[in-house]
Amino acid sequence: MAQAPKIQIRNLYKIFGSDPASALEQVKAGMGKDELLAKTGHVLGLENISIDIREGAITVVMGLSGSGKSTLIRHINRLIEPTDGQVLIDGEDALLLGTEALREKRRTGMSMVFQKFALLPHRSVLDNAALALEVRGISQSERHKEAYVWLDRVGLGGYENHYPHQLSGGMQQRVGLARALTSNSDIMLMDEAFSALDPLIRSDMQKLLLELHVELKKTIVFITHDLDEALRLADHLVILKDGAVIQQGEPQSILTTPTDPYIEAFVSDINRARVLRVRSVMTPLNQEITYAGDVGPDDTLESLITLSDGNTSYNFRVVEGEIPIGQIDMKDLVKALVPRVSAAEHQPL
């Protein structure tokens, strides 16, 4: 029997305005975002969102500015109250929690990493990292001991007594990550957590997050507007547009089989060789073929191009552990590097 999702979002709507209940009726009757704004002055933030967030996985929600991604993540910890729908955490409807129960859920069950770091400027790095445990009433010695551990893990050992203004942006975001890890919560909410960082620092933070995730298996909901970042981090990818889900699923599948012209346009400029994996292109094993070598299912196509020296006549066997699970023909790899062209692009001028 499949394990129930850690978080279940069901038919979630958010409408901003003076009378969201009446506006909701019009949206459910078929009124779109632009028409709703023009006729009622209400803004449709989220429209009928349903997502399963698996325990121990990284779910990435991405979209352009105004797509509703930050609005969505703030419904999980109820920083924003919905107009309609459900948010179930471990089967419990978080929207029905009373004030004290909600406060306890925020203190112990989830943590949040913000784009703008949200560090307290008058507190040391150590006290910032230990803040969640301080709120729970944990003694100073115990919370500092735990914070020391995570500051060291994120590469900030020796900076405990510094203050936020003495750190670079990347270092400040590491403090934010250490604070979330020190809280030891099951769920980590990360809202554009790396968007303000320089590209190289951002890449380092992505790598660090993936390394920590392999060890800790936290349930992470990560918000981004960057497709490269989404494809690198996501176990499950959700793409929003105008407050609605356009497509969701396994990232490699979305990249190879987009179901909407919007998604096709989104993925058309991506470096497919760098993000596509062998498992997305491999075919069943053929025992009659002589293979040029073995590759892993999670190797990138870019690494395979390097291995083959660009020779399209090669075939490689795909091996997981010591078990052969398929093959990859370099000609199929080349085809996979060409993005699918939408029907609209085939129309004559």
Architecture overview:
With 349 residues, this protein is an alpha/beta fold. The protein contains 15 helices and 13 strands. The protein has helices spanning 20-28, 33-40, 69-76, 99-109, 125-129, 131-135, 140-153, 169-182, 199-216, 227-233, 251-256, 261-267, 272-275, 301-308, 330-336; strands at 7-16, 43-53, 58-62, 84-89, 92-93, 110-113, 187-191, 219-224, 236-241, 244-249, 294-295, 315-320, 323-329. The strands form three sheets. It has a six-stranded mixed sheet with strand order 6-7-8-3-9-10, with helices on both faces. A hairpin with a 2-residue loop joins strand 12 (315-320) and strand 13. The chain is globular and about 65 Å long. The mean pLDDT is 90.
Quick structural overview:
With about 350 residues, the protein is of the alpha/beta class.
Overall mean pLDDT stands at 90
Assembly level: single chain
Question: Which strand order spans the largest sheet, edge to edge or round the barrel?
Answer: 6-7-8-3-9-10
Largest sheet: 6 strands, mixed
Shape designation: globular
Beta content comes to 15-25%
The helix content is 25-40%
Helix/strand/pairing category: alpha/beta
Query: What series of H and E elements makes up the topology?
Result: EHHEEHEEHEHHHHEHEHEEHHHEHEEH
pLDDT < 50 runs, ≥5 residues: none
Give the CA-CA distance, first to last residue.
53 Å
Gyration radius over CA: 23 Å
Number of helices: 15
Task: Walk me through the topology.
Elements: E1 7-16, H1 20-28, H2 33-40, E2 43-53, E3 58-62, H3 69-76, E4 84-89, E5 92-93, H4 99-109, E6 110-113, H5 125-129, H6 131-135, H7 140-153, H8 169-182, E7 187-191, H9 199-216, E8 219-224, H10 227-233, E9 236-241, E10 244-249, H11 251-256, H12 261-267, H13 272-275, E11 294-295, H14 301-308, E12 315-320, E13 323-329, H15 330-336
Parallel strand pairs: 3-8, 3-9, 6-7, 7-8, 11-12
Antiparallel strand pairs: 1-2, 1-4, 4-5, 9-10, 12-13
Helix pairs in contact: 7-8
